[in-house]
Amino acid sequence: MSRSSVTPEGGDRTDPSTSPATSTSRRTDYAGAIYGSILAASVVATAGSGGEHPRLEVIVLLLVTGLVFWATHVYAHLAGERIVGQPWSWPEIRRSGLHEWAIVEAAALPAAAVAVSWFGMSVNTGLWLALGVAVVQQVVWACLGAARAEASRGQVIAEGFVNLALGLMIVGAKVVLKD
Q1: What is the DSSP string of 130-166?
Q2: How many Å apart are CA 144 and CA 108, to the nearest integer?
Q3: What is the predicted pLDDT for the residue at 49?
Q4: Using an 8 Å Cβ cutoff, are 163 and 142 in contact?
Q5: d(CA 92, CA 17)
Q6: How far is CA 112 from CA 44, 78, 98, 108, 148, in A?
Q7: Are 113 and 130 in contact (CB under 8 A)?
Q8: Separation between Cα atoms, residue 46 and residue 44, nearest integer Å
Q9: Cα separation of 65 and 108, whole Å?
Q10: Residues 120, 102, 37, CA angle at the centre, nearest 5°?
Q11: Taking the chain (179 residues) in consecutive chunks of 10 residues, what is each chunk's mean pLDDT?
């Protein structure tokens, strides 16, 4: 049996790896978007502003890191939840890849922020802009996921604050690691 979940884009997705006990429950799935946002923030916080093409290096680093972590999550899901005696099927691989794609999508806005910084901003300002975008989207995805799961207003706010605290820890790391 499967359960239906809501993708970050608002569409339904079926997850065949769930138990029959949860087959009638609807779940939101913003984990990849939140995880990817934290990952993107971490990449920006630890990226240097040196090098010959620092903006391009950060953009490539964000996108490659997102893709590598996406592929790792897809593989881990497939390897960790395989059905005994059954090889992976292309539909299963595709379903897992689509399920985890939000990790890559979460790197796109911070990468775009770095790209926009080419137009009149210093590299350092562009990195701070990208970090801010990553933290804001992390908080928004967490709050949206909680709201779509029909959490109480207090829980939505609490999840927002938890994600803001995680983001601010990354900001703190950038301040400490500033070059």
Answers
A1: HHHHHHHHHHHHHHHHHHHTT--HHHHHHHHHHHHHH
A2: 19
A3: 65
A4: yes
A5: 10
A6: 12, 31, 22, 6, 27
A7: yes
A8: 5
A9: 11
A10: 50
A11: 40 42 56 84 78 86 91 89 79 92 92 92 91 94 93 96 94 82
